[in-house]
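A quick aside before the break. I want you to see a complete sequence-to-structure record at least once, exactly as it would be stored in a machine-readable document. Don't worry about memorizing anything.
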Amino acid sequence: MITLGIESSCDETSIALLDNETILVNTIYSQTEHRDFGGVVPEVASRAHLEKIDRLAQSCFTRTGIAPGKVDLIAVTDSPGLAGALLVGISFALGFHTAWNIPITGINHLEGHICSILFENTDVAFPFLALVVSGGHTSLYRVDSLDEFNCLGETVDDAAGEAFDKVGKLLGFPYPAGRFIEEEAARFSGDISQCPSFPVARCSQGKLYFSFSGLKTAVKYFVSGKNPSEVARQRPALCRAFQQAVIDSLVANARLAARQNGIDRIALVGGVACNSYLREALHRQFPDTAFTPHTSLCTDNAAMIALAGFRRYQRDKLRRPIMNASRTL
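That is the input. The structure line, written in tokens, reads:
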């Protein structure tokens, strides 16, 4: 069964083709247009999707040799995300559906991220916890099945990835800054106790909420008024301390969620799941029961959307050309 996946929720345009659960091709165009603005500009994102989506789709069919009419199912991200960006992907999917009379289903973007672990961890048992960490989302879910998602807690202000980008801008890194902060942190060779001390937010006793705006502000005050050369000299230590504070917050809530729910299986997904320090910290906390996708499947991509659509098809046996509204996670 061939599934066409379409993802355009933010600043990645992605098209994928799956044969059952095997990835045939997963193309991603990461929009560099936003670097000049230091963050995602919705109008620019929508325009870039419009310019790239058709060419990406043509490339997928050319590389695989699959004819468009041989697609059995279309899965497209329909929420959450930037309205204009989502509209481009949904419109493209509906046009494809109209032209070839192919069944189509809308997929929640976060459901796609959670499904991404199933490519390499097919034996993950339900229920499990999912820690979704990206530029737009930082949330903890209890996943009882691929139809049952219960949000246990989420950020009350900035997402973790957003905090990385904002702190990166303070320290002179280009957007997106997550990879640059991780690389700079790796340059620090001393003990973590020698780094500046930044706060790890505790929103409320026993609650599973996150907060990163105070951490961002603490970094801002630390560098404020300092000579740029001094900031540059301290940048590895600053990045290590900031990154560790984010990780401590994420892992602490994951540990608390596991204890409260009696579940030790946890999936780490989303763009920030590429961070090797975070992956290592979670695996240390859950040595045999932490699951992560390959880093190529952590960022926004259409393969995860296609897999979520295929899994839903298998459960629902969708056989008619309709648009199913995705659930709000």
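Two observations worth writing down. Residues 169 and 309 are 37 Å apart (CA to CA). The chain has two domains: 2-114+298-324, 123-292. We'll return to this after the break.
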